[in-house]
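Hey team,

Filing this mostly as a record. A colleague (T.K.) asked me to run one chain through the structure pipeline before their review meeting, and I want the input and output archived in the tracker in case anyone asks later how it was produced. No errors, nothing strange. Just documentation.

Input sequence:
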Amino acid sequence: MNLLGIDIGGTKMALSIGNERGEIMADQRFPTDCGNPQATLSRAVEVANELIVKAGLTVEQIDAIGISSPGPMCSRRRMILETPNLKGWANFKIGDFFEEKLKRPVFMQNDANGAGMAEYLFGGCKGLDLVYVTMSTGIGGGIVANGKIVSGINDLGGEVGHITLDINGPLCGCGKTGCWEAYCGGKTMADHIRAEIVANKIPTAILDLVGGDPARISMKEICAAVRAGDAYACGKWDVFIEKMAQAVGILLQTLNPQAIVMGTIAIYDGDLFLPQMMERLPRYAWQSSIDVCRIEPSVLKNIGELSAIAIAIDGTRQLKKG
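Output structure:
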């Protein structure tokens, strides 16, 4: 199959031509206009046509188009419902737009679900019942069971970042309190530490690593300070690890998956993070569930592109099944 993948992000659009083996033949990125979907998607159509030619194909040879988008979104109506980073895109029928312009079948899923399917089709845990956990700015999830995305009745399945770990915990960006993301999301954790350091004038290696500028604090510096044995950073890291173990334990007890695959922080600091989490995991999940589950970092380096390609493959497969 020849497939067009479109990965919609708050700052960039990534388009690629790929196949059912996850091989990318051509790709390109360009900035997203957050307030003007018509202009951005029109440019995407131009780029898509350029990439199709670059790959030595015609539009008619593209079997399907997969769109990976932020949520909340509606896969049936193929549109974003609302998202803080793309406010002008709410209820714009993205799928209809591409189908009208390119005359090819279009399938759309949220980016975490697409990433879960990419892991199932192409990743290190290929073919297993799995949960993919995004672990960068925020925390999201893509659940694949029996080869199918578990998206729920209105595409809110897999929103694991908003599992409540403590009702009296910190406020989350979603409006609830004590969410997994409120404790362990990269942005939330960095924001909290930044505010605390400034308010209490805390001496810490984290501040040294950013040249004394709190605005530059990110998970990268926090992890580096933990590695250096900084007392303040290690205290915050202890809470992070405990909440990670608690949340992963909930996934194990609820879904009993064959694999939990983690992105970003697990990829770049997995040696620091995973052994500590695994040590605490038996507090929150049965050992029999832990023993049969592979918990590991993703090996996919271009998961955004592959997520959109995977959505196209999955959509085509489901369509054939009727």
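Quick notes for T.K.: The mean pLDDT is 95. The chain has two domains: 2-117+302-321, 127-297.
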